[in-house]
């Protein structure tokens, strides 16, 4: 007895069979590589057998910049440019982490007008200027409230 999706069954079955075949081929290559490595570690195996190939994603070579490698002709790499760049703009998560508040509290303070407003960086991206956030932190009043006595203390057992 055939069911309603009988035609689709053969198509899906072919696709899953292809995936199973590909998976079996990859497992076979991995087992061969592992066995060859084990044989070479105990002194067996053929010396002229090539090393197993890396997965396709790891075989890709890094692209060179259009202007060459930037180093000298003796193969030395070019010095890294902009090794440390200070952030100029914070995202919501970054500004919340910088001022030790939750993202919800940051948004609430912005709505109330007591926190710097974000700047529109593009049509769908906003950010807080680091200098403005630092000035807001510097302008906060000094608190007379001390942390509780048990803050940071473990119970003595």
Low-pLDDT parts are none
**Radius of gyration, whole Å:** 31 Å
Shape: elongated
Give the overall average pLDDT: 75
Order of helices and strands: HHEHHEEH
Sheet having the most strands = 3 strands, antiparallel
Number of contiguous helices: 5
Beta strand %:
5-15%
Assign the structural class, choosing from mainly alpha, mainly beta, alpha/beta, alpha+beta, or little secondary structure.
Answer: mainly alpha
How would you name the oligomeric state of the polypeptide chains in this document? Answer: single chain
Determine the fraction of residues in helical runs and give it as a percent range: 40-55%
DSSP strand tally:
3
Distance between the termini: 73 Å
Protein name: Putative DNA-binding transcriptional regulator AlpA
Pfam families: Phage_AlpA
Region (Disordered): 40-83
GO molecular function: DNA binding
Reconstruct the topology from this structure:
Blueprint: H1 6-41, H2 56-59, E1 89-90, H3 92-98, H4 103-112, E2 119-122, E3 125-129, H5 130-138
Antiparallel strand pairs: 1-3, 2-3
Keywords: DNA-binding
Region (Disordered): 40-83
InterPro entries: AlpA
Give a written overview of the molecule.
The structure is a single chain. The protein has 157 residues and is mainly alpha-helical. Among the domains are: 35 residues; 50 residues. The chain is built from 5 helices and 3 strands. The chain has a 3-stranded antiparallel sheet with strand order 1-3-2. Strand 2 and strand 3 form a beta hairpin. The mean pLDDT is 75.
């Amino acid at each position: 007895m055939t069911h309603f999706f009988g035609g689709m069954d053969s198509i899906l079955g072919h696709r899953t069979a292809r995936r199973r075949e590909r998976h079996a081929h990859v497992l076979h290559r991995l087992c061969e590589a592992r066995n060859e490595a084990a044989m070479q570690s105990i002194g067996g195996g053929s010396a002229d057998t090539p090393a197993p190939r890396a997965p396709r994603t790891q075989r890709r070579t890094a692209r060179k910049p259009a202007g060459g490698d930037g180093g000298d002709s003796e193969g030395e790499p070019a010095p890294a440019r902009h090794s440390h760049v200070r952030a100029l703009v914070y995202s919501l998560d970054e500004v919340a982490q910088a001022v030790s508040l939750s993202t919800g509290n940051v948004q609430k303070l912005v709505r109330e007008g007591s926190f710097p407003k974000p700047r529109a960086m593009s049509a769908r991206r906003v950010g807080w200027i680091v200098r403005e956030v630092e000035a807001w932190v510097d302008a906060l009043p000094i608190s007379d409230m001390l942390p509780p006595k048990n803050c940071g203390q473990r119970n003595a057992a």
